[in-house]
Amino acid sequence: TRTPVTVLGLGLMGQALAGALLGAGHPVTVWNRTPAKAGDLVARGARLAGSAEEAVAAGPLVIVCLSDYDAVRGLLGPLGGALGGRVLVNLTSGTSQEARETAEWAAGQAAAAYLDGAIMATPAAIGTDAVVVYSGPQAAFDRHEPALRSLGSGATYLGADHGLAALYDVAVLSLAWNVLNGYLQGAALLGAAGVDAVTFTPIALKGIETVNTWLPGYAKQIDEGAYPAYDSTLDTHVAAMNHLIHESEALGVNAELPRFVKALADRAIAGGRGGDGYAALVEQFRSPAGAG
Ligand code: NDP
Question: 26 CA distance to ligand 1 centroid (A)?
Answer without folding.
Answer: 22
